[in-house]
Amino acid sequence: MIGSxxxxxxxxxxxxxxAMAPLPSYVEAFRPDWxxxxxxxxxxxxxxxxxxxxxxxxxVLYDILLGNVLGLHALLLSLVVYIAAVNHLTIRNLSIxxxxxxxxxxxxxxxxxxxxxxxxxxxxYFLPELLWPAVTNAFIWPWAFxxxxxxxxxxxxx
Length: 158
Hints:
This protein is an all-alpha fold. Helix content is about 75%, strand content about 0%. It has helices spanning about 5-20, 25-30, 35-45, 50-65, 70-85, 90, 95-120, 130-155. About 30% of the residues are buried.
């Protein structure tokens, strides 16, 4: 039987693949942050399994796959998982729509800090389109949450 850690790692590997999947140019600005959503879910569902260290490792892999500044997503995903893990009891008790609002705020924070760091390292300019993924993440969260919860319960991931 496959262990819980392997199943969680498999879900994170799938999100890295989804993050790399090509999309049409008119949809690219709305690409959901699959890695952020799944890490956020695991951090509130199983904070003893997914922690800042695992988020850092996934973030480094994400940076390597994207060819981005090494450590950028590692830092940002670590911050997001820290926020989720510290507040996991509170977030769990909220309705799914309130959780979606929190996901949108955390995602907006993620993208704004990403822009801020890249602005100092390169010549990136702020465009309002940078925040569209936060809206997309909020709309996708309820279905991602329910799908991942079903996956966790059916496979008895603890």
